[in-house]
Every structure is written in structure tokens, then in C-alpha cells.
Amino acid sequence: DIQMTQSPSSVSASVGDRVTITCRASQSISTWLAWYQQKPGKAPKLLIYAASTLQSGVPSRFSGSGSGTHFTLTISSLQPEDFATYYCQQSNGFPPTFGQGTRLEIK
Amino acid sequence: QVQLQESGPGLVNPSGTLSLTCAVSGASISSNDWWIWVRQPPGKGLEWIGEMFHGGTTNYNPSLESRVTISVDKSKNHFSLKLASVTAADTAMYYCARDFRDGYNTGFDYWGPGTLVTVSS
């Protein structure tokens, strides 16, 4: 299986801050990467696919970049509703695998 | 609006079979999308269980393949998950979702709210 490693595992930030989460793949996955947001008690929500394509309806403060083994999710100006756990997920290798998650907390 | 809804027993005996159904509305299960199951143990991360295409093609996570069956009922526009020989390690929130595939693009874009299944006697 392709291992996906996210960093940091948790981060504290304030409303208005710029935050970047990193995801590394154990082997090249081209741009077969998606990002999800999950709030407590809720299902994950697709934010970005193909490493950098914003899913319909997702605010433009979210952006993704990267290819190969190194990817980032950036939130340009944190809003109160952005405090959640974020997961990366690869779909280049079988089976699809997720990162362990990054918990974004209010400072 | 595409909606998915999981249903099934919330409590399963050890060594028994977990059975869940995912009802799909707002989309045809016979579309060119794949339909998947994902699980999440309490307080932990996400694990892809398997996928199904309406023609009957299925793929399973090798870690679960010997115990998993995903099937479709086109007449009811729903698909199902069976996981045999369950243990406490199978206790998790189980989600069904749609995996859209469009050339080089793919993602799990619609999810059910999830259903918690506990394995315990």
C-alpha cells in the first residue's frame, strides 16, 4: 500500500491566519490526490481533487498544490468554520489510502 | 442533489456478519460512477473498504478481501456491504460514498452521514 503521511498531526491557529498542511506519499502518485475536511460527528467533505482542483462550492480560500510525492493544502485566511480535521487521500495505487489526519484547532 | 443513506444493525455479535445497505437518491446507481464503502474506528482515521460498479465489478481492500462482499440492487438503487467474521477491531463508523471518475479526475464527492456499528456480545 502507498503510505500517506501528513504533517503536522495537529496545529493551533487563529481566525485570519494562513495555514499550510503537508502530505507526503511513500511513492510517486502524480496528481492523484484529494483533500477532505471532517468535522466531529460528520462525514468527510471533498475539498480538492487532482491535487489542485477546487470542488464545486468550496470557498476559494482553500487551495492545493503539488505532484509526485509532496503535496500541500493551504487555507489563506482561516474562518471559524474551518476548524476541523483534514485528510489527504491518494488514488494512484491500490488500495486508495488516506493520511492519518491533521487536526486544526483554535488558538 | 445526490444523497446517500446507510442503514443496518448498530450492534453485531463477534464472529457474526455485519450487513449494511446504502440507499442512493438523486443519482442512478447505474451511472458511470463507482460506489464505495469507507470506515473509521472511533477516534481514528479513514480506511477504504471496497468499491463497486453497477455492472457488478468489485474491488476490495486486500486487508479485508477475504471477508468482504459488496453487491448492488439496481431495482432499489442501492448497494450493500457484508463483512464476515467480525471482531471488536471492526467496530467503526461505516460510510458509503460516490467515487466520481472523469478522465484523470477522481474523488469521493458525496457521502452518507455514516452509521456506527459496534461489535460486541
Structural account:
- The complex is a heterodimer of chains A (about 110) and B (about 120).
- Chain A has about 110 residues and is mainly β.
- Helices cover about 0% and strands about 50% of the residues of chain A.
- Chain A contains no helices and 11 strands.
- Chain A has strands at about 5, 10-15, 20-25, 35-40, 45-50, 55, 60-65, 70-75, 85-90, 95-100, 100-105.
- In chain A, a hairpin with a 2-residue loop joins strand 7 and strand 8.
- Chain A is globular and about 35 Å long.
- The relative contact order of chain A is 0.34.
- The mean pLDDT of chain A is about 95.
- Chain B has about 120 residues and is mainly β.
- Helix content of chain B is about 0%, strand content about 55%.
- Chain B is built from no helices and 11 strands.
- Chain B has strands spanning about 5, 10, 20-25, 35-40, 45-50, 60, 70-75, 80-85, 90-100, 105-110, 115-120.
- In chain B, strands 2, 4, 5, 6, 9, 10 and 11 form a 7-stranded mixed beta sheet that branches. In chain B, strands 1-3-8-7 form a 4-stranded antiparallel beta sheet, with no helix packed on it.
- The chains are: A mainly beta (about 110), B mainly beta (about 120).
- At the A-B interface, strand 5 and strand 10 of A face strand 10 of B.
Mean pLDDT of chain A: 97
Major beta sheet of chain B, specifics? 7 strands, mixed
Order of helices and strands of chain A: EEEEEEEEEEE
Unreliable parts of chain A: none
Q: pLDDT under 50 segments of chain B (min length 5)?
A: none
Taken from the alpha-carbon principal axes, the silhouette of chain B is: globular
Percentage of residues in DSSP E strands of chain B: over 45%
Helical content band of chain A: under 10%
Counting helices, strands and paired strands, the structural category of chain B is mainly beta
**End-to-end Cα distance of chain B:** 39 Å
Instruction: State the total count of DSSP E strands of chain A.
Output: 11
Total DSSP helices of chain B: 0
Distance between the termini of chain A: 35 Å
Shape of chain A: globular
Quantity of strands of chain B, as a count:
11
**Structural class of the helix and strand makeup of chain A?**
mainly beta
Number of helices of chain A: 0
- Helical amount among residues of chain B, as a percent range? under 10%
Q: Radius of gyration of chain A over alpha carbons?
A: 13 Å
What composes the largest sheet of chain A?
A: 7 strands, mixed
Strand content of chain A: over 45%
